[in-house]
Amino acid sequence: MEGQGCTAYDVAVNSDFYRRMQNSDFLRELVITIAREGLEDKYSLQLNPEWRILKNRPFLGSICQQNIRSKQRPRIQELGNLYTADTPRPEEGPEKPHLNIWLEAPDLLLAEINLPKLDGAQGLSLEVGENHLVMGGSQQLYHLDAYIPLRINADESRAAFHRKRRQLMVAMPLLSAPS
């Protein structure tokens, strides 16, 4: 509530990822949700799920640069072969959309599915299995069936449709980080 005191928690985010997150409502909301849930789990508390982005300042109080040391990983990590089922279909059948998939963190796989013929997500269906991603729709414009050689946490996976870019964005936490 306005005018009342509150407890603040610092969350460090890689500056390159932070810049990328600023251009994506989906990524920004995903990071904020993950941070909130992580704080709730770590400190055994219940935070209000409503959040605000400061409009005229990037932070309150003072901030200092953080350097996080970790074992250096290659910037591009090879995931192995992604198999997309290519079943024969009639000329008038659904189109196979372009799938862009990458490992955002050791335990988070992100996917963008380009759907230029759609204005929204209405009628789209998405099924995420432990190692499979299947997308279709009632309009029969697109169909995607992709095998992913990683173990996905299907219950924690989330998707959002980006109307401006006409993309379905899927965040898939992994059950175990690839080695």
UniProtKB/TrEMBL annotation:
Pfam families reported for this sequence: PIH1, PIH1_CS
Record-annotated PIH1 N-terminal domain positions: 3-74
Record-annotated PIH1D1/2/3 CS-like domain positions: 105-174
GO biological process terms, semicolon-separated: box C/D snoRNP assembly; rRNA processing
InterPro entries reported for this sequence: PIH1/Kintoun_subfamily, PIH1_N, PIH1D1/2/3_CS-like
Top-level taxon of origin: Eukaryota
GO cellular component: a single term: ribonucleoprotein complex
Function: Involved in the assembly of C/D box small nucleolar ribonucleoprotein (snoRNP) particles. Recruits the SWI/SNF complex to the core promoter of rRNA genes and enhances pre-rRNA transcription. Mediates interaction of TELO2 with the R2TP complex which is necessary for the stability of MTOR and SMG1. Positively regulates the assembly and activity of the mTORC1 complex.
Family from the record: Belongs to the PIH1 family.
PANTHER family with a match to the protein in the record: PIH1 DOMAIN-CONTAINING PROTEIN 1
Protein known as: PIH1 domain-containing protein 1
